[in-house]
Specification:
The structure is a single chain. 31% of the residues lie in helices and 27% in strands. The protein has one domain: Beta-lactamase Inhibitory Protein, Chain:B, domain 1, CATH 3.30.1450.10. The longest helix has 17 residues. The N and C termini lie far apart (59 Å). A hairpin with a 2-residue loop joins strand 3 and strand 4. A four-stranded antiparallel β-sheet has the order 1-2-3-4, with helices on one face. The chain has 103 residues and is of the alpha+beta class. The chain is globular, with a radius of gyration of 20 Å.
Amino acid sequence: MLMLPGSALITCALVAPMVLSSSRTKPFPTESEVRARIQNGMSSAEIVAAFGQPSSKSSADEGRLFYFSPARLQKKASCIHFIGFQVIFKNDEVIDWSTTQGI
């Protein structure tokens, strides 16, 4: 296989942005975006499709998905504000959800 000088560098320059963009995650949703998107009856797959993989999960009878903003660890807020939310399921359908507030 014949390679031109610098072709490996050009290939890396063309491929790297595609790899990096595919590994990016969605920005963390605002409280109003969460309120607008979650509806009772949604499946856990629909929630994950809308918000990405949760920060953590519970394996209790009523499954729960927890989402926490990564920014909550970086901000030095002095007032209580939206830092995440939890979604509660029964038979893989949303039955309730709530926001998580923190400093």
